[in-house]
Amino acid sequence: MRQALTLLRGELRLSFRHGTDTLGAVLFFLLAGALFPLAIGPAPETLGRIAPGIVWVCALLAALLPLDRLFGADFEDGTLDQLLLSGLPAGAIAGVKAAAHWLVTGLPLLAVATPLAIMLRMPLDALPALLSGLLPGTIVLSLLGTMGAAIVLGARRGGVLLPLLVLPLAVPVLIFGVAAADAASFALSPRPHLLLLTALLAAALPLCLIGAGAALRRAAE
Amino acid sequence: MLLQAEGLAVFRSERLVFRDVSFDVPEGGALLLVGPNGAGKSTLLRLLAGLGRAAAGRVLWRGQDALADRSLHARRLAYLGHQDALKPALTVGETVRAAAALGGRPGSGGTALEALGLAPLADLPVRMLSAGQRRRLALARLLCAPTALWLLDEPTLGLDTASVARLGAMLARHRAAGGAAIIATHLPVPLPGAATLTLGA
After folding, report:
1. Do residues B121 and B133 lie in contact, with contact meaning Cβ atoms separated by under 8 Å?
2. Residue B139, in any domain of the structure
3. How far is B71 from chain A (nearest CA, A)?
4. Do the Cβ atoms of A221 and B90 come within 8 Å?
5. pLDDT tens across the length of chain B (201 residues)
């Protein structure tokens, strides 16, 4: 555990040194969201109706952006070998990477989701449901992304393969996340959808880390 | 006997890299791996580190199967591959401090830098280092964890004569403390009394 925290601190320090990569995902999220009013017109009723969907799709795509460098740099410069020889199980290394990805991508997305949603005229009553859906949702996205990034490691054109692998797996997260916010904007309870999202998180946590760990071992061979 | 290899064989995709490789390394012992390019020296080192997979044979650590628990085995060894595994954005000091914190020997970073003559460069970012200095920094990381077995792949690559002598002193201290080293190399390494294993012969 102490080793994992040390590793996480190192990962975060590196992320802050490469600040543009981190900021890039958040800016992409805001810009992509801002394109919708330009493309479909600023009518509040239309925008407000589809705002949860826009926020979720943009969050999903923005979370994908930094994934191909998640293990890519470590794989190329030999750091991955050293990580695998740090004495931590490969699954724990994947867990540290997923946590770092969530802290530098998922958490900032969560923070800027509110201004984006307000800009898109989403009903304010639905905002808590949107955010409480994004919280487990972005963690699941980080876990799925970490697994995907580990699996495509060493593949030619892994960056192209990665979204093809991760996006279909992320569909349930998208469905329940948007459904929670939609339910709240129609004054229904978002609770069942949020519970399902949390269940997805509970399933993804062990499965994705085991998968990612095995893929990392495989990539090192 | 610290480390024993029995009848190791490795395939890389369809090609047999080597087979029937057996050797013993006692405590304080050293083994030089020599052989032409492509003979499997690096592959053997990665296999011993638990990064590769053997098609046949086994590796024993004090008589027990070493690779049954790879995380446990990883704590016994330090591995230096072809690549230096350094992050250009970190400084020299940060690199060894991080390695020392991870290796469970906090505070060893300063001594590690001094052992390789890198102490004056501690505040420099890694991207400013020359190839030889980077190699020395990668070697300094060996001293940041209490490991019994060093697996080094061409450790003297790019080093000047003074640094090779420092590496020699490091290896001598490591062996005097009961540690062992297995080194793949084409260049002479100061390693008195080392056994030699020729691959691809």
Report:
1. yes
2. no
3. 5
4. no
5. 889 999 999 988 888 988 899 999 999 999 999 989 888 899 999 999 999 888 999 999 998 898 888 889 999 999 999 999 999 999 999 999 999 988 888 778 888 898 888 999 999 999 999 999 999 999 999 999 889 999 999 999 889 999 999 999 999 999 999 999 999 998 888 888 888 899 875
Q: Which residues of B, range 119-148, sit inside 8 Å of A by Cβ?
A: 141
Is residue B167 included in any domain, yes or no? yes
Structure tokens at B18: 């080597």
Q: Does A77 touch chain B (CB under 8 A)?
A: yes
Predicted TM-score of the model (pTM): 0.92
Q: Residue B65: inside a domain, yes or no?
A: yes
CA distance A102 to A141: 8
CB contact under 8 Å between B74 and A87, yes or no, is yes
* ipTM for this prediction: 0.91
For the record, the structure tokens of A206 come out as 């062990």
Residues of chain A neighbouring B87 (CB-CB closer than 8 A)? 14, 77, 79
Q: CB-based contacts of B186: which residues, under 8 Å, 6+ apart? A: B34, B154
* Domain CATH for B19: 3.40.50.300
Q: Is residue B106 situated within a structural domain?
A: no
Hey, are the CB atoms on B81 and A81 less than 8 Å from each other? Answer: yes
Number of structural domains in chain B:
1
Chain A residues touching residue B84 (CB < 8 angstroms) = 77-78
Interface contacts A/B by beta carbons within 8 Å: 62
* Total domains present in chain A: 1
Q: Which residues span the domain enclosing B19? A: 3-87+147-198
Domain that holds residue A31: 2-220
Cβ <8 Å between A7 and B49: no
Question: Which alpha helices (DSSP H) does chain B contain, by range?
Answer: 41-49, 70-76, 92-103, 109-115, 131-140, 161-176
